[in-house]
Design goal:
Keywords: Membrane, Transmembrane, Transmembrane helix. This protein is mainly alpha-helical. It is built from 3 helices and no strands. The relative contact order is 0.24.
Length: about 70
């Protein structure tokens, strides 16, 4: 199995999870155009998955160090 070293602190994981819930809710409530709904739900899914995994590939590419647990 591929192993990810966590590079997101707990507070940022909580913020990302809350943002994903807000983005998903706002997408389902405000957007009527199907392609924009797909885009909004995709952003919410990416935020939620990085929150659950604790690993952000973009942060790793830009040099964020892994956190020690």
């Amino acid at each position: 199995m591929f192993y990810f070293k966590r590079n997101l602190p707990v507070w940022e994981r909580i913020v990302r999870l809350c943002l994903s819930i807000l983005v998903g809710g706002a997408t389902s409530y405000f957007l009527d155009v199907r392609i924009l709904q797909i885009l909004g739900f995709s952003i919410a899914a990416i935020l939620a998955s990085t929150a659950f995994l604790g690993f952000c590939p973009a942060c790793a590419m830009f040099g964020r160090k892994s956190i020690s647990e």
